[in-house]
Amino acid sequence: MNAGEPVNPKQSFTVKGQYIKDLSFENPHAPQSLMVAAAKPAIEINVDLKAQKLQETVFEMTLHIAVRAIADNTTLFLVDLAYAGIFEVNNVPDTHIEPLIMIDCPFVLFPFARRVIADVTRDGGFPPLLLDPIDFAALFMQNKGKSGAVG
After folding, report:
1. Contact 28, 42 (CB under 8 A)
2. Fewest Cβ atoms closer than 10 Å to its Cβ: which of 28, 52, 63, 128?
3. Stretch among 25-34, 68-77, 86-95, 125-134 having the lowest mean pLDDT
4. Residue 89 pLDDT more than 80?
5. Contact 129, 79 (CB under 8 A)
6. Any bridge partners for residue 18, and if so which?
7. Are 110 and 103 in contact (CB under 8 A)?
């Protein structure tokens, strides 16, 4: 390090854009599934995170959420959403990049993905599905070392 260099340069984390990469809604048993006044359906939710480096300081994070609603052993609806964002990260130590991308980025994207899922389930004829918050730090720790790491 040279004597004139700053010790802690200004760190920045910027959302450059966000978008739906892929969206699918299936109502395989309509209209019968909409006419049944069934009990509250069981909801299966799977969450997956994928990150890729686009440029030296620019990353894409894709939050993939798959939902299946089941009642009386029948699938009421399926939602498959890949919601992504482009993030620019500057002057962040290398050791902090992966947690930033895999925890903070999906945390920023989640409310928008949640709204898309609520809207599409409502538009599909069902009550809007409001997903519970996701602990992305716990998900990161659980998946540490698996595929989906930044790179």
Report:
1. no
2. 28
3. 25-34
4. yes
5. yes
6. 85
7. no
